[in-house]
Design a protein that fits this description.
By secondary structure, the protein is α+β, with helices and mostly antiparallel strands. The chain has 2 domains: 86 residues, no CATH class; 69 residues, Double Stranded RNA Binding Domain (2-Layer Sandwich). Helix content is 60%, strand content 14%. The protein contains 8 helices and 3 strands, in the order αααααααβββα. A 3-stranded antiparallel β-sheet has the order 1-2-3. β2 and β3 form a beta hairpin. α2 crosses α5, α3 runs antiparallel to α4 and α7 packs across α8. The longest helix is centred in the middle third of the chain and has 31 residues.
């Protein structure tokens, strides 16, 4: 609100969502070297497992959230706020009023056209700690995009971006 006093609450909500999503939390953990500290704190016989866990964005995001919670309990709101603002500065700087993630943008565009959006998991490959998911974005039952990512949500975002580009490029009513 302080950075964007004229932006309406709806856009601020979308911006907040972008700032505290899994990728931003994982990036904050990376910037603070939390994955390395996590691995270093693991018992000697479990370091390899800890290294594999530390590669996962969801685990790095959880590390970030845990450290913020612990700092708040130990140091209070004031000191914690300063550290959080510093850690999330890149995400805060990248938050643009009016921006939406690909799935939300596709949903809005499809709604304007009276169409329905759904997602299907097309497959996955790799071991659990390095799994890659592939999803299909369907608009009124027709595949409009396909994408891969390290989570189902990430693969859906890539598929949605492709579908949105195809939808806007075609100008079709679906």
């Amino acid at each position: 609100m302080r950075r964007h006093p004229t932006v309406d609450e709806g856009d601020l909500s979308w911006m907040r969502q972008a700032v505290v999503d899994r990728d931003s939390c994982a990036a904050a953990a990376d910037a603070g070297a939390l994955p390395e500290l996590f691995v270093a704190a693991a018992p000697a016989g479990r370091r390899e497992a800890a290294e594999q866990l530390a590669e996962r964005p969801s685990v790095r995001a959880a590390l970030s959230e845990a450290v913020i919670g612990a700092a708040w309990l130990d140091r209070g709101v004031g000191e914690t706020r300063e550290g959080v603002l510093e850690a999330f500065a890149p995400a805060l700087d990248a938050a643009v009023p009016g921006s939406r993630d690909a799935k939300s943008s596709l949903q809005e565009e499809a709604a304007r056209r009276g169409a329905r959006v759904s997602y299907e998991l097309a497959g996955h490959e790799g071991p659990p700690e390095r799994r890659t998911f592939t999803s299909r974005a369907l608009v009124d039952g027709r595949e409009m995009g396909r994408g891969s990512g390290t989570s189902k949500q990430a693969s859906e975002q890539v598929a949605a971006a492709e579908a949105l580009a195809q939808l806007k490029g075609s100008g079709a009513a679906c």
